[in-house]
Write a structure and sequence with these properties.
By secondary structure, this protein is of the alpha+beta class. The chain is built from four helices and six strands.
Amino acid sequence: MDRDFLIDLFADFGPVTIRKMFSGFGISADGTNFALALRAGLYFRADEQTIPQFEAEGSTPFQYQTRTKTVTVNSYWQLPARLFDDSEELADWARAALAAAQRAALRKRPKVRKSAKAVAKRPAPKRKPAKRKAKA
């Protein structure tokens, strides 16, 4: 898959940003990566809400091989081949993938830290005065 093909494929979805990534491309919208286009196919971001839809189509999660094992990435699932011919339905799946990616980003947000002012207002811990040696 080349960049122009991907731009055409997502035309009904809306504007996407396509960046070179690994052996293919990362596809994002609104600053959120929601799809991977690799040699093995097109993979959309999935979560507990969207995985059943992929399973119903007979899709599988993204997998890659290391020297010692096969790694399965359950957060990206292969897009059903039939959707390459139905741009409107592909756009619906892309919107669902973007929503799954946004939900995942919300779960990963760091906890709010205390502001510097709040830390500065805390009283400093009291220290014991140092003992002086008597002069001989």
